[in-house]
Specification:
Blueprint (H helix, E strand, L loop, with lengths): L3 E6 L4 H14 L4 E7 L7 E2 L4 E3 H6 L8 E7 L3 E2 L8 E4 L2 E5 L6 H15 L17 H6 L6 H11 L4
Parallel strand pairs: 1-2, 1-5, 4-6, 5-8
Antiparallel strand pairs: 3-4, 7-8
Helix pairs in contact: 1-3
The structure holds zinc ion (ZN) (2 copies).
Length: 164
């Protein structure tokens, strides 16, 4: 039994969620991806001082999943933390959140979702032509590769495969 990734989506992103699930299936062939349905972000996660949703506040609303599972929440609102404005996403353990607020299109949303799932599988940032290359702007998301480099692919296979 491999790793199962469940995806929650903000009600406003219900139509995008399926495309993200499809994209993640292609990026992570050994991962079982399932849609968990709509889940709205509670107003309490809004940081009135920073005028954005607190990324780690949202991660804190999700229970750490069982050992063979990971969970991703697609949100519509702008995301950040005390040091960053406009984060595209964040991951902690096997929980991740991705915001569509600053991403230009569905393809960019799949890229950043794939990047955060990469973090959940234990990957760090990569300087190659790779989805694990960090992006600070929407332009950087659009110009970076839409797939993982050979080294990161190998790490993903190790993290999601049975053996070897
Ligand atoms: Zn990253
Ligand atoms: Zn890489």
């Amino acid at each position: 039994m491999g790793l199962v990734l469940g995806i929650y989506s903000d009600p406003k992103l219900a139509s995008e969620a399926e495309g993200v699930a499809d994209g993640l299936c292609k990026l992570f062939p050994r991962l079982t991806v399932m849609l968990l349905g709509e889940r709205a972000v509670p107003a309490a996660a809004w940081d009135t001082f920073l005028a954005q949703y607190d990324a780690f506040g949202i991660l804190g609303l999700m229970a750490e999943p069982q050992e063979s599972a990971a969970v991703l929440w697609l949100v519509e609102g702008d995301l950040g933390d005390s040091r960053h404005r406009g984060l595209f996403g964040a991951a902690q353990g096997r929980r991740a959140v991705v915001s569509a607020a600053r991403l230009p299109d569905a393809g960019a949303l799949v890229k950043e979702a794939g990047h955060e799932v990469g973090h959940m599988l234990g990957l760090g940032h990569c300087s190659g032509a790779c989805l694990m290359r960090p992006a600070k702007t929407a332009g950087e998301v659009q110009s970076k590769a839409g797939a993982f480099c050979p080294a990161c692919s190998e790490e993903i296979n190790r993290a999601t495969g049975e053996q070897g």
